[in-house]
Amino acid sequence: MGLGFVVGVFGVLILAHAAYSTIQYRGLLKIMEEEFSGPPMNVVAELLLGLALCMWAALTVPGKFLSIHPDSEENRIVSLPANLDFMIFNHRGKLFPPEMNLKLKY
Amino acid sequence: MAGNGVSGASGKKSSDMNDLPTFSAEKLQSNMKVIYYSRTFLSIIGGVIAGILGFTGLTGFILYFLVMAVTSVGLIAKARFSVHSYFDCWNRVILDGFVSGLMSFVLFWTFAYDIVHIF
User: Which example biological process does GO assign this protein (chain B) (predicted)?
Assistant: First the structure.
C-alpha cells in the first residue's frame, strides 16, 4: 500500500506540473495574441503519464478483493482449537451426508 | 467442523435440497467499497485532465466515459477475470460508481478549467 500511495502522489504531482505548464503556455499565447487550440505535445504526454500512474495507484491502493464464496480457500473457518476438552463429536451432525472433503488446518 | 453455510454474516441461507448460492455479504460490501474508492479517485483525476486539456461540452463527457471504461477493464483485471468469485453479478463491477463519479468529474473539470484557462 505504501508504494501505491507514493505512485498516486507522484501522478498527482505530474498533473499539477502539467497544469502549471499549461497556464504558462496560455500566458505566452496571450502575449503573442493567438488562440488556444490545445496544450503543447509535451503537456499532453505528461497528462497521459500522470493518468497512467494514477490509474495504477487507484487500482492497487484501496485494497484487495475478498472472495465471497463461503467455501473458498481463504474463507476457511475450520481449525482445531488448542483446547480439545470441550469438543464433542457425538452429536446429530453425524447424520449429515458428508459432502466435501474436510481439510484440517491448524 | 464446518457445517453447512456457517459464516459470519451470510447473505442468504442455503438448504440441503435446492442449493441457493450463498455469499458473505460483508466481503461483498468491502469489495464494493474498493470499487467505489477507485472510481471516485479516477473520476476526479479525469476531471482535472479534462479541465487542463480545455475540453468544453460533449468532448469532456466522452473523456469521462473513456476513463470509466478503462477503469471497468482495470477492475475486471484486478478480479483476475473471475468476477463471480468476488461479486454476485456483472453490473456491480461495470456500472456501480458511475453517476456519483460523474458529479465529481464535472466538479473537478470546472475547477481545473477555471484555474488553468480563466484565471
Answer: protein folding in endoplasmic reticulum
Please tell me the predicted confidence (pLDDT) of residue B30: 87
Q: Compute the count of residue pairs across chains A and B with CB atoms less than 8 Å apart.
A: 116
Tell me whether 0.85 is exceeded by the ipTM: no
User: What percent helix, strand, coil does chain B show, rounded to 5?
Assistant: 65, 0, 30
Tally the residues of chain B: 119
Asked if the structure places residue B71 within a domain, the reply is yes
For residue B68, is it within any domain? yes
Name the grid cell of A86: 470441550
Q: Contact, A78 vs B72, CB < 8 A?
A: no
Q: Is residue B25 part of a domain?
A: no
Instruction: Write out chain A residues lying below 8 Å of B38, CB-based.
Output: 58-59, 62
Residue length of chain A: 106
Q: What is the pTM of this model?
A: 0.73
Given a contact cutoff of 8 angstroms between Cβ atoms, the answer to whether A79 and A23 are in contact is no
